[in-house]
Design brief:
four-stranded antiparallel β-sheet
Length: 302
């Protein structure tokens, strides 16, 4: 066990020494990988912030059924009673709004009073305001109910506000797919950068590797420092990406705070949780080690 630990400790020391031996080249590689990793981290931060907002801006549980202008005066009460009888599990409450009451409410608004005074008659229909019960998928459920109610006699229009929420969810779903594709692209960049770095190191250390083999060094002993070199590159670049993303969010949050205050709300971008960031760094380190193994296997066959 002590021998195994000593070998790995030696491999880590060699990997660190090789990184420090060419500081400018190592720093350039780390910076390229870190900047590349920063992009999906910022994208994830935006999604994490947007998803709760989409949930909070959930579909209003109210729907409005506008009756035909030709409907009789008791049609609203009939529709309300039918809703209570046929949809007791879906409907929480029903309120009939008479056309005269709606017109009086509009006339009380100075912005509408002058325009309504010029009309010869009341253009508003009777309406039934329906408050729905909570549902796991309220937007889709409201659409289903609206489709049924539009088929009723004397019903002219069913209005609800779920369409824009569905569009927002579609945009977020599209963004999540885009983020996954971006992460795959970033993984390829990490693999290519580490592969090339280890390749150059292997070619530089070609004579040293040959001498080590002559004195009995195993392939594991030869490859191990390169694997740690790839893993350390990925680990350092991942941590650097988190730091860059943290500082990048500062000016973004300043601008976003001003925008949110103009709408009377508060909103701020935040990094993914610590577990997700740690997992991402580990994955990048593993990708670095795998790329290093592939590179050193291909470039030390002599």
């Amino acid at each position: 066990m002590k021998r195994w630990l000593r070998q790995h400790r030696y491999a880590i020391a060699v990997a660190v020494r090789r990184l420090l031996a060419q500081p400018f080249s190592s720093l350039a590689n780390l910076l390229v990988i870190a900047l590349t990793l920063t992009v999906p981290i910022l994208g994830a931060s935006i999604l994490i912030t947007a998803q709760p907002v989409a949930r909070q801006l959930s579909v209003s549980p109210e729907m409005t059924i506008f009756l035909s202008p030709k409907a009789d005066a008791e049609a609203g009460a009939g529709v309300a009673q039918r809703l209570k009888d046929e949809f007791p599990e879906d409907v929480d409450s029903v309120n009939v709004v008479k056309r005269d009451a709606a017109l009086a409410k509009l006339r009380a608004n100075p912005n509408w009073a002058q325009a309504l005074a010029a009309l010869p008659s009341n253009p508003l229909p009777d309406a039934v305001v329906v408050t729905l019960r909570d549902h796991p998928d309220l937007a889709r459920h409201a659409d289903t109910l609206a489709t049924q109610w539009r088929q009723w006699e004397q019903v002219d229009l069913v209005q609800h506000d779920s369409a824009w929420v569905q569009r927002l969810e579609a945009i977020l779903s599209f963004a999540r797919i885009g983020l996954v594709l971006l992460a795959i692209g970033v993984a390829l960049v990490v693999l290519a950068t580490v592969f090339n770095t280890v390749r150059m190191q292997a070619l530089t250390q070609r004579e040293e590797i040959g001498v080590a083999r002559l004195v009995g060094a195993t392939e594991s002993f030869v490859r191990r420092p390169f694997l740690y070199l790839g893993a350390l590159t990925g680990l350092t670049a991942g941590l650097g990406a988190i730091v860059l993303a943290y500082f990048a969010l500062m000016p973004l949050n300043t601008a976003l705070t001003r925008l949110a205050h103009s709408y009377g709300t508060t909103l701020a971008l935040r990094l993914p949780d610590a577990v997700s960031l740690a997992l991402a760094v580990i994955v990048v380190a593993i990708l670095g080690a795998l790329s290093a193994r592939w590179s050193v296997t291909r470039n030390t066959r002599f």
